[in-house]
Design brief:
The chain has seven helices and no strands. The chain has 226 residues and is mostly helical. The protein has a single domain, classed as Alpha-lytic protease prodomain-like, CATH 1.20.1510. It is elongated. The two termini are 25 Å apart.
Length: 226
Amino acid sequence: MASSISVPDRSAFVRRGLRLEYLTLAWNSLEALIAVAAGAIAGSIALVGFGIDSIIECASGGVLIWRLRTDADAHRRERVELIALRLVGASFLLLAAYVAYEAASTLLKREVPEHSLPGIMLAVASLIVMPVLARAKRKVAQGLSSGAMHADSRQTDLCAYLSAILLGGLLLNAAVGWWWADPVAGLIMVPIIAKEGVDALRGENCDCNTPVAESGCTDCHVENEK
């Protein structure tokens, strides 16, 4: 993949990207631990499922760390970029499958979201942290012309959306008894998540659907930051 930025600038973007991915990995590991523990205590399938989502995102973060650590090798960079993008795409599809199963199961079994103060606090914290991380990752993706990094930033955005769904489901159930709000919102998100995964597997990550292996398009990244 061609890049017009200088080696020192590229190295700075790589270091920044690695810091962001390590931070994401640490956050999602803690998030998974808290969500699974709180969900098990409260008997909340939604919270346990949220923890499983965090584990999937940890896998995506590990892929990006591998991608960034090989960035210095210009001969391998394009091949590793495409492999990393497809692995992130596979994690999107795993996430879509999980959300679809969890939402359908909840609707069929009429499982009411449980009240859990740690779960609510975790969802609120994730809503604050994840958008900030996603925006920072997009800036690194733009600097490196990295489709894999951009796709990972979209997955971080989806984590924030899932946090909002979790929080909304808990609050709507508590306020007006709409137990079905959480799974219905989840089902609406499934095709969006799946499309992200399919585009990544095809080597397309930009909103303009430019194959990253051919061009390294940054037009969409620039537009997204305006």
